[in-house]
TrEMBL record:
Stated name of the protein: Cystathionine gamma-synthase
Lineage: superkingdom: Eukaryota
Source organism per UniProt: Haemonchus placei (Barber's pole worm)
Cofactor: pyridoxal 5'-phosphate
Record GO cellular component, one term: cytoplasm
Length: 57
């Protein structure tokens, strides 16, 4: 995260990965949390991409 492109990450696997390495009674982030960083793409394109991706889950 931090560029001009839009990115989605699984927070627990990325920025909070240290929680995976130890047992945590109360995790800081929910296991299914996805983090979305919106870039400078056309908003309609981004919404269409997200709609396509989320419809497959």
């Amino acid at each position: 995260l931090g560029g001009t492109e839009s990115l989605m990450e699984h927070a627990l696997s990325m920025s909070h990965s240290s929680q995976l390495l130890r047992e945590v009674k109360e995790p800081m982030v929910p296991p299914g949390l996805l983090r979305l960083s919106v870039g400078i793409e056309n908003a309609e394109d981004l919404v269409a991409d997200l709609d396509r991706a989320l419809s497959r889950i």
